[in-house]
Write a structure and sequence with these properties.
The complex is a heterodimer.
Chain A (H helix, E strand, L loop, with lengths): L6 H15 L5 H26 L5 E5 L8 E5 L1 H21 L10 H17 L3 H19 L5 H32 L4 H7 L8 H18 L8 H8 L2 H24 L12 H21 L3 H22 L2 H31 L16 H16 L5 H12 L6 H28 L5 H13 L4 H19 L1 H15 L2 H9 L12
Antiparallel strand pairs in A: 1-2
Helix pairs in contact in A: 1-2, 1-4, 2-3, 3-4, 3-10, 3-18, 4-5, 4-10, 5-6, 6-8, 6-9, 7-20, 8-10, 9-12, 10-12, 10-13, 11-12, 11-16, 12-13, 12-16, 13-14, 13-15, 13-18, 13-19, 14-16, 14-18
Chain B lengths: L1 H19 L4 H21 L21 H32 L11
Helix pairs in contact in B: 1-2, 2-3
Classes of the chains: A mainly alpha, B mainly alpha.
C-alpha cells in the first residue's frame, strides 16, 4: 500500500510539532522549516494528483483495519484537486508571511501548519466523524491565526467566529450521534450502501441528521441566513491568514458536494433534501455579496463580498447536482480561490503604500510600485468580475451554461450577471481612487513616508503576488486540460459505486451486528 | 428510562441555547458548555440504553455494549473541552481589551 494519501496530512502535522520543539531557535530557522515543509507539501500533493489521473481511488487504511471499521483516508480526483489547491495557497501564505507578519505574534508557522494538516485531512478523510475531527483541527488553528497580532478588532471578530463555530460543531456532533444511532455507520462508502436500505421507521432521524450536516456545511460556506460572520472575520484577519481563509469556505462546499454525491443522492428519502431551497438561498447569497460589495468602504471588505458571491455561485452548482454543473463549479472553484487570494495580497500591497489611509476608498498618497500593483490589479479584477479574456469569464460562462436546465435558471443567470457587473464597477471605482486621485496634501505624503520607512520592500510578499498572478494566467491558458480534469472529477463523484468498490474491494461484505 | 433521558437532553439543550443567545460572553460560554453536555450525552446514548450489556468482553458475557459511541464521545469531550478553554481565554482577553463582558464590545471603535 502506497503511503502517498496520508502524506499531505502527515507533513504539515509533523512540521507543526517540529516547529514547537524548535521554538528556541528564532524566527529565521522556523521560517526555513515552514517553507521547506510547504515546498514538500506542494510536491507531494502534485504527486497525489498525478496518481489519480487514471481514475484510481486510493484508499489508505490506518492500522489496516478492514472497511468499514477502521479509519480510512480516500484520495480520489476531487480530494487530490483540493489538496493541490491548498498546497498552492499555502506557498503563497508562507511567502507573504515571511515579510514580517509571522513575527507579530507567537507560533504563526505552527498554527499555519496545523491548519494545513486539518484542511488536507478534511479533504482526504473517508468517514464523517474524522471529517469532524479535522474540521476542529483546522478551526482551532484558524482561531489562533485570526487572533495573530492581537488588537480589539480581532478579539471581537474572533469571539463571534469562535462562538458561531462552536455552535456549528455542536450541530455537527448532534448529526453524527443521530446518524450513528440510527444507521450504525459513519463511513462514507458504507453510507452509500446502507442509506438506500434504511427501514421506514428510521428514515426521519436519518433525514434530520443529514439535514443538520447540510446546515453545518453551508454555515462553513457562508450561505445567506448563516453567513453574516464571514465579512467580519475575513476583514479582521491579518493578510496572509486571510489568503489561507479563502480555502476555508471551500471546505464547506467540498464537504457538501461530497455529502450530496455520497449520501444524499443515493437514497430516495434523502435525495430531495437540497432541492427546493439551496438554489434560491444561493441566489440570495450572491445578492448579499453584491450589496456588501456596493456598501464596502475598503478593499478587504470588497474581497470578502467577492468570496460570499463565489460561495453562492459554487452552491448553485451543488444545488443543480448534474455532472456538468459539478464540472463547471470545480473549474470556477479553482479560479475563484486563486483570484480571491491574489486580491487579498494585492489589497495588502495597496494598503502598505498608502500609509494611514490603508485600503480605504479615500484619497491617499500616490502608489509607488505602479507597474506591479497596477498590472496585478488589472489582471485580478478582470478575473474576479468575470470579464473576458481571463479565467473568471470562462468559469462564469461554464457555470451559466451548466445551469441552463435547472428551474432556477433565470434567477441564477440574473444573479451571476449582476454580480459580475457590480464587482467590476466596485473594483473600477476603487482603482480610480487608488491610481488617479492621489491626495496632494503634505500630511498624506508624510504618512506614506513614515510607513515606507518602516516597511522595506519585501521580496516574499511580491513573490506571493506574482505567483498567484501567474497561477491566474495558468488557469486561463490551461483552461482546456483543467476543465477536462474537472469534468472527469465530476463524472467520478457522480458514480459513488466506484468509491464503494475502492473502499470495500470485491470481497463479500463483512458480517456485522445491526442493532435494533 | 427513554423519556427521562430525552427530557434531560431536551432541557440541557434548551437551557444551553437560551444562554447562547444572551449578550454577555459569560452566559454564552455557560450555554455552550450545557449544549455540549447534551450533545455528548446524545452521542453516548446512540449506543442504546441497556443496563444488561456489559462494557467489557469477559469470559461468559454476551451482548456487549457498542464501544464506538464511547470512543466518539471521548473524542468529542476532549475537543469540546479544548475549544471551551480557548473560548474562555479569548473572552478574558476581549474583556481585558474592551473593559466589558458584552459580546459586541468596542463595536464602533
Amino acid at each position: 500500500m502506497s503511503h502517498l494519501p496520508i502524506l499531505p496530512f502527515i507533513v504539515p502535522f509533523v512540521t507543526a510539532g517540529l516547529l514547537l520543539l524548535l521554538n528556541g531557535l528564532g524566527i529565521a530557522a522556523k521560517r526555513r522549516v515552514s517553507a521547506i515543509a510547504v515546498a514538500v507539501l506542494v510536491i507531494v500533493s502534485f504527486q497525489l494528483l498525478a496518481s489519480v489521473t487514471d481514475d484510481r481511488i486510493h484508499v489508505y487504511r490506518l492500522g489496516d483495519w478492514p472497511a468499514p471499521f477502521g479509519i480510512v483516508l480516500v484520495a480520489d480526483r476531487l480530494a487530490a484537486l483540493m489538496v493541490v489547491l491548498t498546497a498552492l495557497l499555502a506557498a503563497a501564505v508562507v511567502a507573504s508571511s515571511i515579510g514580517g507578519t509571522d513575527a507579530e505574534g507567537r507560533h504563526f508557522h505552527v498554527f499555519l501548519q496545523l491548519q494545513l494538516a486539518g484542511l488536507n485531512g478534511a479533504f482526504l478523510t473517508g468517514d464523517i466523524f474524522n471529517l469532524f475531527v479535522f474540521f476542529e483541527i483546522l478551526l482551532l488553528a484558524s482561531y489562533a491565526l485570526l487572533m495573530h497580532g492581537g488588537g480589539l478588532v480581532r478579539s471581537r471578530a474572533g469571539l463571534g467566529y469562535v462562538i458561531m463555530n462552536l455552535a456549528g460543531s455542536a450541530l455537527f456532533l448532534i448529526a453524527l450521534g443521530l446518524t450513528y444511532g440510527s444507521i450504525g455507520t459513519l463511513n462514507m462508502a458504507d453510507l452509500v450502501q446502507v442509506l438506500p436500505n434504511v427501514a421506514p421507521a428510521d428514515q426521519p432521524p436519518v433525514r434530520v441528521a443529514l439535514a443538520l450536516l447540510v446546515a453545518v456545511f453551508v454555515f462553513k460556506a457562508a450561505l445567506l441566513p448563516i453567513g453574516f460572520w464571514l465579512p467580519h472575520v475575513y476583514t479582521a484577519a491579518p493578510v496572509p491568514v486571510a489568503v489561507l481563509f479563502v480555502i476555508m469556505t471551500k471546505v464547506g462546499i467540498y464537504a457538501l458536494l461530497r455529502l450530496s454525491t455520497i449520501g444524499l443522492s443515493t437514497a430516495p428519502f434523502t435525495s430531495d433534501l437540497l432541492a427546493p431551497w439551496l438554489a434560491w438561498l444561493s441566489v440570495a447569497t450572491i445578492g448579499f455579496g453584491v450589496v456588501g460589495a456596493l456598501a464596502a468602504s475598503r478593499m478587504s471588505a470588497v474581497i470578502a463580498s467577492i468570496i460570499v458571491i463565489s460561495s453562492g455561485t459554487l452552491l448553485l452548482g451543488v444545488a443543480a447536482g448534474t455532472v456538468s454543473a459539478h464540472a463547471a463549479m470545480l473549474y470556477y472553484l479553482i479560479n475563484t480561490t486563486v483570484v480571491a487570494a491574489g486580491l487579498f495580497l494585492l489589497a495588502d500591497h495597496v494598503s502598505r503604500q498608502r500609509g494611514t489611509v490603508g485600503d480605504a476608498f479615500e484619497k491617499g498618497p500616490r502608489l509607488t510600485s505602479v507597474a506591479l500593483v497596477g498590472g496585478a490589479y488589472l489582471v485580478l479584477s478582470l478575473a474576479a468580475s468575470g470579464m473576458p479574456p481571463l479565467s473568471g469569464f470562462l468559469a462564469k460562462l461554464m457555470v451559466m451554461q451548466s445551469l441552463g436546465s435547472t428551474n432556477t435558471m433565470f434567477a441564477a443567470w440574473f444573479a451571476l450577471v449582476v454580480s459580475g457587473f457590480v464587482v467590476a464597477l466596485v473594483l473600477a471605482r476603487a482603482a480610480s481612487t487608488y491610481f488617479w486621485e492621489p491626495a496632494k496634501s503634505a500630511a498624506a505624503e508624510t504618512s506614506r513616508k513614515d510607513v515606507a520607512g518602516h516597511a522595506p520592500s519585501e521580496p516574499g510578499r511580491d513573490a506571493a503576488l506574482v505567483g498567484l498572478l501567474a497561477l491566474t494566467i495558468v488557469v486561463t491558458v490551461a483552461a482546456a486540460p483543467i476543465s477536462s480534469f474537472a469534468r472527469a472529477t465530476a463524472e467520478q463523484i457522480a458514480a459513488p459505486e466506484k468509491y464503494v468498490t475502492a473502499n470495500f474491494g470485491s470481497a463479500p461484505p463483512v458480517k456485522r451486528e445491526r442493532r435494533p | 428510562m427513554e423519556i427521562i433521558v430525552s427530557a434531560a437532553l431536551g432541557i440541557l439543550a434548551a437551557s444551553g441555547i437560551y444562554l447562547l443567545l444572551r449578550p454577555t460572553t459569560f452566559s454564552v460560554i455557560l450555554g455552550l458548555t450545557l449544549l455540549s453536555y447534551a450533545v455528548n450525552a446524545l452521542i453516548f446514548f446512540g449506543g442504546r440504553l441497556n443496563a444488561a450489556s456489559p462494557p467489557l468482553v469477559l469470559a461468559g458475557t454476551s451482548g456487549q455494549a457498542d464501544p464506538l459511541p464511547q470512543a466518539l464521545v471521548l473524542t468529542a469531550i476532549v475537543i469540546g473541552f479544548g475549544m471551551t478553554a480557548y473560548l474562555v481565554a479569548l473572552a478574558l482577553k476581549a474583556k481585558g481589551e474592551s473593559g466589558t463582558d458584552h459580546v459586541d464590545a468596542g463595536k464602533d471603535q
